[in-house]
# Entry
Amino acid sequence: MTAAIIDGKAVAREVIARATTLSGAFVKSAGRPPGLAVVLVGEDPASQVYVRNKSREAEACGFRSEQHSLPADTSQADLLALVARLNGDPGIDGILVQLPLPGDIDSGAVLTAIDPAKDVDGFHPVNVGLIASGETARALVPCTPAGVMILIEGATGRSLAGRHAVVLGRSNIVGKPVAQLLLQRDATVTIAHSRTHDLPELCRQADVLVAAVGRPRMVRGDWVKEGAVVIDVGVNRIPAPERGEGKTRLVGDVATDEAMELASAITPVPGGVGPMTIAMLMANTVTAAHLRSGLRRPDFTL
Ligand code: NDP
# Structure
């Protein structure tokens, strides 16, 4: 068997097209566009690129898009004051504070200060709790896990009942929420992490395997069950001397070339989960705008 490659870029384009259409309809019913505010503290080059891309995509979707760039020595009090101002701005539906935050700023305190109804990153304890208690219909779901679920649904059909899903990684931003969303869809879920024994054997039992560990090509071909759907969340930069001195390339947590021999469908890196993250941010902003305006929650199932 050679796996179908799941085209995350194409699926992300569909999500963004839907967000754009819904944004246009929202303007007609609410008299204003959905609003997204992205906050960057400091000058981390990678964060600058992420924030610029998010703001640009929001504009392309027809949103009101605000970018707040604060110096690296911004105090926690000043950042909290900005969050409070954005919480109180009726034209802003989504607030995203780019992580990591520099210096002594307590990111937990900042994320908790965001109005849960505007928490388009889905990291506020209220949204975390709603997802943990199975109330995803009322929650804003973190972007990468939400994107992972759309890709899984596309590859498996909507029902995951009776399927064994193994999630490698237990971080709060990927592993845990992905596992909870899979559970919500009636999969039988195993969460594995750095203390798990015999990962290869566990992975070989997975009908759906989600790798989110941050270890280049850790999941080898012989870890994959025949016919499994493999979702590779990992983004790892490794040296690529074949491209020239000092060059690098991105690889996932899965040895894709090997896993393809057995999987039925697999996400590539890059071009798999990555593009879905920003698309789901747009989806979450439209969703937040609808919910805050008392409109029915839009459906982003493709
Ligand atoms: P974290 O470092 O927060 O978590 C990694 C998890 O993997 C931990 O639970 C850790 O276990 C586990 N782990 C680490 N090494 C091993 C090992 N050898 N065997 C088994 N488990 C292991 O990472 P994130 O969840 O934030 O991100 C994971 C990957 O996904 C990264 O490559 C990141 O770049 C990528 N990512 C991609 C996104 C995208 O948009 N495509 C978005 C977010 C992340 P333990 O808890 O025991 O330490």
